[in-house]
Hints:
Blueprint: E1 2-10, E2 20-25, E3 34-37, E4 41-48, E5 57-59, E6 83-89, E7 94-99, H1 104-107, E8 114-119, E9 128-137, H2 152-156, E10 164-167, E11 174-178, E12 182-189, E13 196-200, E14 206-210, E15 213-218, E16 224-227, E17 232-238, E18 246-251, E19 259-267, E20 296-304, E21 312-315, E22 318-321, H3 322-327, E23 332-334, E24 337-338, E25 348-350, E26 355-362, E27 368-372, E28 377-382, E29 385-386, E30 392-393, E31 395-398, E32 403-409, E33 414-420, H4 423-427, E34 431-436
Parallel strand pairs: 1-4, 3-8, 9-12, 11-19, 20-26, 21-24, 25-34
Antiparallel strand pairs: 1-2, 4-6, 5-7, 7-8, 9-10, 12-17, 13-16, 13-18, 14-15, 14-17, 18-19, 20-23, 21-22, 26-32, 27-31, 27-33, 28-29, 28-30, 28-32, 33-34
Amino acid sequence: MILLASSQRISLAPGRWPESDLWAYVGGVPGPTIRVLQGSRLRVQVENRLAEETTVHWHGVRVPNAMDGVPHLTQAPIPPGGRFVYEFDLPDAGTYWYHPHQRSFEQVGRGLYGALVVEEADPPVVDRDEVWVLSDWRLLPTGELSDDFGNMFDVMHGGRIGNTVTLNGVLPEDFRVVAGERIRLRLVNAANARIFALEFGGHRPFIIALDGQPVEPHEPEGGRVVIGPAMRVDLIVDAIGLPGSRHAIRDTFYRDLPYRLLDIAYDDPPATVPDDLRIKPLPPNTMPEPDEASAERHVIAFAGGMMGGMKGATMEGTQASMNDMLKRGMAWAVNGIVSTGHVMDPILTLGHGHSYVLELRNETAWFHPIHLHGHVFRVVARNGRPEPRRPWQDTVLIPPRETVEIAFVADNPGDWMIHCHILEHQAGGMMAVIRVA
């Protein structure tokens, strides 16, 4: 398939708001949902019609290093008018997504993203399989997109959190269902920085996958489906409401900013309810199981930002004060080192095929969704306490001043990014390289 990246004039609320200068794949925001069968080989030719360089990163997919889409580190960026062919196998089923890794704080922020669904050979029996790509936008009073990308307030604080949320590129209204339906919802958080905590009024969603990886079906803690930037959650939602009824889905993550995302709206008549309503686990994927008993352990500390207390860090080989960093648009560090680009010396070199436990320390006052390229890891502990479900993930949300331990087998050779997926934090220095050799 061909994935064309270009600038488009698009309205997020057609007929109500004016068009904005968005950047789109194949003319739409989000880009097309790519659906392929597990075990298939994907070939995508990306053509760049933007006025600047770009790449495509296949988030969560264990691709060969040359297909990872990191500019200068794994490939030369695609120039304006240029093209690049991404081709790789898809060993694992699940919900993934694609987006640029070149100036992603603006390229993703203007709409360059889409979902990648790798379907199981034997999927769960549902009436519908729906993809919900969530994002948010900072709009001006006119309804047009604000172009203040990468400003230092966002970099130093919680990132570019917008004032308008869209679902699949438009302002959502109703999600129409029929009583008795069973629906698989694949949630993708494509926002630069917004964390969602969705409450499904009058319903009991069950989580069946995190970041595309199967988990034992369970209800979300506290009834809220929490999904940080770049993360994905697959749900089974049974339509248990009465015909004609309406039920609000609300986002309550930010204490002072709750809002209604949309209503689940029931049509008539009810559907035929199947006899077996059990939710069966998805089949496992193909990741090798880490041996924690023999695993080598390392600490990765994330520091900086407003109220972080960091005095300075190493930047381009020399010690820099926080004031020096801020003058360069930087505010964050990983293990005391500020990234000013994608090419840097690795903070760790891991042996190919060996097991590792990484202790990820959030030493800041802000949430960070930490993403590791090229691998999927088990989340084994939080703040020293074992994680009961030990989920496989590729992006883990770490609250302020907390610690998460992840375990994985370093089975994919190459230089791989590890970074915060609040894209303003990444641009402001919270990015590093781990080498597997």
